[in-house]
Amino acid sequence: MGEKKQHVYIIGSKGIPAKYGGFETFVEKLTEYQSNEKIQYHVACMAENSAKSGIDGPDFEYNGAKCFNVAVPNIGPARAIYYDIAALKQAIRLAEDNQDYQPIFYVLACRIGPFIGKLKQQISNLNGKLFVNPDGHKWKREKWSYPVRRYWKHSERLMVKHADLLICDSQTIEKYIRNDYRRYHPKTTYIAYGTDLEKSKLTASSPTVQAWFTQKKVQPNNYYLVVGRFVPENNYETMIQEFMQSETKKDFVLITNVEQNKFYDRLKKQTQFDQDPRIKFVGTVYDQELLKYIRQQAFAYLHGHEVGGTNPSLLEALAMTKLNMLLDVGFNREVGEDRALYWQKEAGSLKNQIHEVEGNTNRLFETTASTNPIAERFCWDYVIDKYEEHLGG
Question: CA 293, CA 348: separation in Å to the nearest integer?
């Protein structure tokens, strides 16, 4: 009889193979870099995500993980909640059928708080444990109406209350959970998000590089860059206005999807950024090697994210871009430390910083050589090792 496996069910990502952002990439790396053979991962996947990789049927194996598909009806904003509940119920059923020994159910984000009490009871009946990643401050996102924000906050509280362990990917979030919910005595740990530290394999003469820079009319080392979702809480409004008021001759390249985006239309009306030839919305870049090369060639990276934990695009910028100029909030400071510059939301702060870095590059570049600490604390090998300490039973 071999050693007992530690079964870990992961709920809340769209699934693997990863087609999207944060949580999907995390689950991909968690399974890809697995070194503890005692762990058996089971991953809930949205059927439509699997279909994008040509996978159908109820279950499949990927990176050694046992993946199970969950069909999600198109019911609007409540889809994510429906999906998490259906996936967790299915996971509990699988653990029961397999007679797993002390299974762990790791739920990414706090969407299903009002429903978790009953499900937690079923987990306890299996001698299982509920682990939760609280994600960022979902209830602060501007796209949500007031009732929806209240739901997220209420949901977060109940997830914290019922979790056996909260794995926070940001120290700022961990501190907030411990303070705001101290009446529940939450058990927390901090494990960072990871990033890929390999430099791009592309060079200036690569056809994809030449095509992109020519088509977008962008010069290497002559642009400020931002990569991220085009939403108000990432402070695009401040960055665009401050950039427009600056006297820089460089471009501001925005890699983001703005199709059918009301916020984009509103901002265009307000700021008339389309009249400023330096501001270049260049769409999205799905080719990861090209994206790395674009990051490496940027004069500086601008980062205005204000809510959410450790942001993957910030880690990539710190690993790839020479100079990083970040909004001064706890999330960004804990990652950038003294290897980045910080600006405030107040009028003039970012504009002045743009003038300062362009007038005084040498000294500032020295203080922002940022690859080493990123390599130590945020490489996937290190992050996955930390996870296996907690998930290995």
Answer: 30
Cα gap 366→112, rounded to integer Å: 46
The torsion of the CA quartet 389, 387, 393, 43, rounded to 10 degrees, works out to -160
For helices 113-125 and 79-97, the axis angle rounded to 10 degrees is 0
Residue 15 phi, psi dihedral angles, 5° rounding: 125, 175
Residue 54: strand, helix, or coil: coil
Alpha carbon distance 164, 131 (integer Å): 6
Q: Tell me the average confidence (pLDDT) per consecutive run of 10 residues in the chain, 393 residues long.
A: 83 88 89 96 94 90 97 89 97 97 96 97 98 79 77 95 96 93 97 88 97 98 94 93 97 92 93 97 92 96 84 86 93 87 96 91 51 73 94 82
Angle (CA) 333 32 171, round 5°: 20
What is the rounded distance in angstroms from the CA atom of residue 156 to the CA atom of residue 134? 7
Peptide bond into 73 cis (omega under 30): no
What is the per-residue burial (b if ≥16 Cβ within 10 Å, else e) of 362-378?
eebeeebebeeebeeeb
Confirm if 224 and 301 have CB atoms less than 8 A apart. Answer: yes
Cα separation, 139 vs 157, whole angstroms: 11
Instruction: Name the region of 195 (left: φ>0; alpha: ψ -120 to 50; beta: rest).
Output: beta
- CA 270 from chain center: how many Å? 29
Whole-number Å distance between alpha carbons of 178 and 366 = 37
DSSP H stretches of helix in the chain = 22-32, 47-51, 79-97, 113-125, 146-162, 171-180, 207-215, 236-245, 262-271, 288-297, 312-320, 330-336, 349-359, 361-367, 371-378, 380-391
Question: d(Cα 277, Cα 5) in Å, to the nearest integer?
Answer: 59
Q: Whole-model pTM? A: 0.83
Token reading at 305: 């994210």
Rounded-to-integer distance, Cα 74 and Cα 251, Å? 40
Alpha helices per DSSP H over 181-326? 207-215, 236-245, 262-271, 288-297, 312-320
